[in-house]
Automatic annotation (TrEMBL):
Domain of life assignment: Eukaryota
Protein name as annotated: Feruloyl esterase
A Pfam family this chain is assigned to: PhyH
Lineage: Eukaryota, Sar, Alveolata, Dinophyceae, Suessiales
Listed InterPro entries: AB_hydrolase_fold (IPR029058), Phytyl_CoA_dOase-like (IPR008775)
Amino acid sequence: MLDAHGSWIKRLLLNEGNQPGACGAGTAQERSRSPRDEANIADFWSSPKDLQSWQDEVTKHRINFQAQLVLPNGQRSPGDAPLAVAFYFSGLGHEARDILKMDWGSFASCPFILIVPQRPSGRWWFIDDDAAWGWVEGEFCQELVEAFAAWMNMMIDHPRVDKRRLGLFGFSAGAYAVLEMFASGLVPISRLAVGGLHGHGQPNVKHIPQKRSAGVVEKFEKFLQRVEGHAGAEHIEVVHGKTDKQCPWLDAKKIVDALTKKQLQLGCPKVKLRLLDAHEQDTFSKRNKTHHDYMKAAFMRKEFFKGFFADKVPHGEANMASPKRPLPSASMPSASTLEVAKFTVSTSMDGWEEQGFQIFRKSGFVIIEDVLDHVQCSEVLEDCRQMAKEIVAPQGAGNRGKGRYSFGVASSTGSILHREAIAKHLLNEGGRLLQPLLSQIFFDESDRLSSFSCYSGGGDFVLPGVEEYQHLHADMQVKKDLDKQMPPPFLAINFVVQDLTELNGPMRIVPGKRERDWRNQKKEPDRWRCSRLCPVPAGSALVRDVRILHGGTPNLSEETRFLPSVEYVSAWFRATHRPDMFPPRRCIPQDVFVTLHSDVQQICEELVAEPGDDTEDMSPDDDWHSKVWRGVTFWCT
């Protein structure tokens, strides 16, 4: 065995004292010492209680670790097949021996080698400070990343290791270490999982003492740049606590977004995200003050290992082995003619309300970013998917054209505000955040007041594989004597709960153009047809005057695209008592209404359902209707 694998064996050294060496310590004599039992060391996992040590010949950094073979409960031998490998990087509160004592066999889906490195002394893994504020005050150590990469590559060079199933996972500070190793691109990792993640630095200086705040944001930005440079993986899973106070989700989301962005650019699978409620953590008591105790909930699950070690197509071979459905050339979209950035502001910007209002007044719509967070988007998206199951009939005919559906016209109340996630995240939280902008939009110069109310909730979705464009249209028209520019009679806020791309059927919209500008056109101009709202990130809101021309585009992706909405009406238009619209349908159940903020309740009073009212039914796609007024269709979308 020494003859066949001698070069591998000579690079693995035992630390005779079974104690971790200081980072960067070690003499030439120690580095050249040969193992006393070469046959045992060849299978480095055969002595799980031993703390083993290896020293990088280039950087001189010493890496201490423990390793063991994990067998699924009931399996006595790993057999002769190559073995999967999982490197686990622990949080600050665990040693390698603590991790190996855990009952991994109860959850393993296959035999695998678990390798647990010891955190270098005095380091926050790859940050040169392990004090309480080390993750923001310390400096990044690229050299240490390179040393760990050399060690990992040596370990996976073992002849029993399955090179197709190399995993890397970690929790808290260990999750940070995992991300740095993955981002380095120095180790051929194909599976990745992190829980309770944080980065180097922080995206803001919130809760950071002033004396420690210098460079915090800059360090985080550089960390994100490293993460965005990753080379892709066949499986990435992120587990995070919704109520985590130690590593807040809003900070972690920025890291998840960076991972996802590059995955999609590379054509790799999306990041799998699992968000935990407080009661799902390992400890659900007053002892868990920071809500950061969920390492076991994250990884000690059969479902986790089934996904982590599932047979995957090696990265780079995916297109050859499993080609995606080819895009029809006739439907391939041209580049969008709409410069989305010119119509976009973020709630993180100072004076965003005024900037958004100026864009809206000129174009009839505005995109507001950072309205919803990832948790809100995920819960609303799940609600949309559930509603779609109730609406779509087997033939998928659509109620707004083939494969296109309006939520509103498929509901018995013409609304979706009875849905818990819709009411909570869109109407109550998203709508309230946008109220300063709505107040400016609905400000009436004639009486110097801003007055509006909520009318309904709807939106649309388009199934994957839809190749047709929807006709250009306005959602409503009003009599000429009532058709004033500002304030608009009716407003829709479409909430973006998935990233809008060129391929997944984004709305096309023509800035400032209305039905009268389209009426005498024989053919839709090419620049209008290509005026698509993309890219727009999830969490954004499209605030639009429903009289502005818009239409659907082909969804050439492999997923349904959802765009739910909440609708508002100006006080002056409500006073017209238009018979096909008013009074609005009572669509908010009493038990939902009482959960709304008082500000939101005030604008929804006319929508509260009476006892016994039906606010639940969704109708199949062949049972749809529209409301017609003087030959013009008003869609409840």
